[in-house]
Amino acid sequence: MGKLLEVEITKKAFGDNLVLSGMSLGLEKNRFTTVLGPSGCGKSTLLKAIVGLDSEYDGTIRLNGTRVSGPMKECGMVFQEPRLLPWLSVKENILFPLGKSNEPNLAELLIILELERFSKSLPKELSGGMAQRVSLARALISLPELLLLDEPFSALDIVTRHKLQDKLVEALRERKTVALMVTHDIEEAVYLSDTIHVMKQRPSRIVKTYEINLARPRDRASPQFTKKVSEIYRDLRGHLMIL
Ligand code: ADP
Ligand code: MG
Question: Distance between CA 222 and CA 228 in Å, rounded?
Answer without folding.
Answer: 10
